[in-house]
What does this fold into?
Amino acid sequence: MVSAISGSRILDSIDKEILNLIQRDFPLEREPFAAVGREVGISGQEVIRRVEALKKGRVVRQISAIFDTRVLGYESSLVAARIPPERLSEGAKAINSHPGVSHNYERDNHFNLWYTVAVPPDSRLGLEGTVEVLHRISGAESTRILPTLKLFKIGVTLDMKEGATARKEAPAYGHADREGADRNITEADKEAIRILQEDIPLTPRPFDLWARRAGMASGEELIERAEDLRRRRIMRRFSAVLYHRKAGFRANAMGVWKVPEERIDEVGTMFAHYQAVSHCYERPTYEDWPYNLFSMVHGRSKEECEAVLDAMAEESGLTERLSLYSTREYKKTRVRYFTPEMEAWERLYAGVLR
It folds into this structure.
């Protein structure tokens, strides 16, 4: 078993309990850290102290709202690129220049660079035009756009106590949630989104502080807006995101499966119930890419990931799969919505397509 390290100390049981709680659901309350403290039997100030240490130790990346990109009107996709190994780092840096690129990894496959990109509703280039620019400026030999055809599950929760196991649970967010969301995004919604997407201040009443900065009447008003966004399924959840490796999860496997078309819904739903699976999507295929179901598994070791994927293979009866492990992280962040950076990037690179 691999122990997670925060700075120079090993995480204790209370740290792990806090991390498990705030990954799933950070309280939308006036004193949220006190609420977490009540769950684990310590004071709110002690929770703040521990979270601050976990952030300094690069275990906690950010605590903020997580929105559904597509519900907000953004186009997004996973993209697979094949770049000559000798210029992979340079190519990855070029791709990272786009503000809508949130994840970018080298993986052990002939498609050696995998990234996700999102573009806003008013993008002049659109998703395909943006990917074409990224293809050219990265020096890629081949690029494949792999958008979500059907979402079965999205939501990373690393079990700090048990690691990756074949345990089952109902997925927190899937296709029905996205399809039932309110896509009428108002200017007031955008104002709240700009605030809630930031990293929460480590203070006893953080929503009060945010509200004052935004010129709102009170923290309660901001919390009500957050609850409204969640009720309308625009906000998936308000929670913590961890630095996986620092949290002890040193392996992440993109399990890709060749599934008969008539079994996609059955198998996608089955895989979405594995707690260790953070993302499960149907994606398109190409002549050089026959895998249509993607399931991301995070574990403390490759062996832990493979044990989960083996259990999934046994239950489903599927035999044609690959496990693509990340060998280098070039970028991992959250997309910032309704900000001017993407428009500036498009102005800079629009001439590439001429």
